[in-house]
Amino acid sequence: MPLDRRTFLGSSVATGAAVALTGAGAPAAAASTPAGAPAAAGHGPGHGHSDKRYAFTVMGTTDLHGNVFNWDYATDAEFDDAAHNDVGLAKISTLVNEVRAEKGRPNTLLIDAGDTIQGTQLAYYYAKVDPITGAGGPVHPMAQAMNAIGYDAAALGNHEFNYGIPVLRKFEENCDFPLLGANAVDAKSLRPAFPPYVIKRLRTPHGRDVRVGILGLTNPGIAIWDKANVQGKMAFPGLEEQAAKWVPRLRAQGADVVIVAAHSGASGTSSYGDQLPYVENAAALVAQQVPGIDAILVGHAHTEIAEYRVKNERTGREVVLSEPLKWGQRLTLFDVELVWKRGRWAVDAVSARVLNSNAAAEDERISGLLRGAHAKVVRYVNQVIGRSTARLSAAEAPYKDTPVLDFIAFVQAEVVRKALAGGEYADLPVVSQASCFSRTAEVPEGEVTIRSMAALYPFDNTLEARVLTGAQLKDYLEFSARYYVQTPAGGEVDPSKLTNAENISDYNYDAVSGVSYEIDVAKPAGRRIGKLQLNGEPVDPAARFVLAVNNYRASGGGNFPHVAKAEQVWATSDEIRNLIIEWVKQSGSIDASRFASVDWKLTRDGVPVF
């Protein structure tokens, strides 16, 4: 759909925040100065008028993950959690309106730090069921909402690539604001594949506009996590090196203030180990190493950071970081104060805070705009596709071999066996990994709907088959077993204190079906796997197995050993969630007697924990 430049530029000019410049790369919406051209100088007051001051506010969201409404499509009810957070752009819109009313809209900007078009059934529906890429396809609901709210720019997140580049490009076309990614480059030319930056002008009472440069950075892990979608097409160099390249260019283009929207956490850690030479959560490193940045809107880590100050090692100046909580639960506010010095605007102070969206009502303008789309998705996810003979709960799945994870592993293994039938790998035993994505997920007794399967497998992972040896399989299980806190024998075991050792998330613990084994949590990590057997016989270290594994893990997510470099013998672009849904449709019944078995258990010195 062609962009309506009148809507974008008209509102921007009216608010005094017109786009002055977009960075080189794919054309961005509404650039009034071509990329690479010098920005207009403006009309500034005379030198030395240090009494002239101006303040403005940059609002920020991140990791919206397809949330427009305060709604949980898995439970078919209003969203709620233990902290009584609310979610969605309709609530964010109300907060944005309040800030604009308080500060004056001309003195505000609104940006996002990525992960927008994946995460809810609303997002999935418009990528796969009624895709925006179809002939005469709909405008993406997230684009509709963000356009109506009036976003000025958004960085690319890694999940933007989950549905392939064509869906992302169509979403970009749907947006009335630029999608920024300075370190998302063409694989051959290494030129930016998206605009690296945009410069926004804010009018001041003193005659000289303030020019705010917004640089977008995304996550280099995309090269691993969405390898099937981006390999040979795009590359994702490190955040620090690309920021060091583009921040000086922003300053040279006349930016008085530089804000970075970085889809990268602040911790300096990575989940993909040595798979790439770049750090996954590099926002604080960018602040520390690259001079010329005033503030960073942080994304990706799904944590709340109201304000975090990092001293730049070259200039000694503090850079202010803030990460609002995911799904539209929080809105970051960067309050920037400037003073006129030596013929230009200089940043005098920056502070950050977050607003909680649970204190806001949904903006009827946004919810009304998308009520029809929401209703379509609700009807879709409530389709009955089969029945279950019993309730299967994931509550104990992180520490017990439960039927609900067996079910996921069983479906994956069946799909792989059928795919390999008649080929050279058909005689190899198939083992299958599964992780607990949510301890509240369950398969209900009785009618089973699409939404109950979506809740069981909420991620858009696809399925692969990789070949491992018996020795490599044992290494894989040992690595997974790091998840448990070392617990001496004797005495009661508190399940709430048994898992998440080394801050390993539930989704980075794999249970494997198709072999049997014990995990001795009294032993140190790396020496826990015992009695690893296939059909009652010890596993031969030289034996070969086919591992049914999700693409996140197969691509190096979680940094499990061997699997990323193992031979791939089959893969599908269909999501595992869809494979499960189709299996239920064809079978008509989920009967645990077909797949439930206790293949693994926790022990202490050989004595079962449970």
TrEMBL record:
Cofactors: a divalent metal cation
Domain called 5'-Nucleotidase C-terminal: residue spans: 384-564
Reaction it catalyzes: a nucleoside 2',3'-cyclic phosphate + H2O = a nucleoside 3'-phosphate + H(+); a ribonucleoside 3'-phosphate + H2O = a ribonucleoside + phosphate
N-terminal signal peptide: 1-30
Boundaries of every Calcineurin-like phosphoesterase domain copy: 57-303
SUPFAM superfamilies for this protein: 5'-nucleotidase (syn. UDP-sugar hydrolase), C-terminal domain (SSF55816), Metallo-dependent phosphatases (SSF56300)
Pfam families xrefs: 5_nucleotid_C, Metallophos
Localization terms from the record: Cell envelope
Assigned keywords, A-Z: Hydrolase, Metal-binding, Multifunctional enzyme, Nucleotide-binding, Signal
Family annotation (InterPro entries): 5'-Nucleotdase_C, 5'-Nucleotdase_C_sf, 5'-Nucleotdase_CS, 5_nucleotidase/apyrase, Calcineurin-like_PHP, CpdB_N, Metallo-depent_PP-like, TAT_signal
Similarity annotation: Belongs to the 5'-nucleotidase family.
PANTHER family named among the record's database cross-references: 2',3'-CYCLIC-NUCLEOTIDE 2'-PHOSPHODIESTERASE_3'-NUCLEOTIDASE (PTHR11575:SF6), 5'-NUCLEOTIDASE-RELATED (PTHR11575)
Protein name: 5'-nucleotidase C-terminal domain-containing protein
Organism name: Streptomyces olivaceiscleroticus
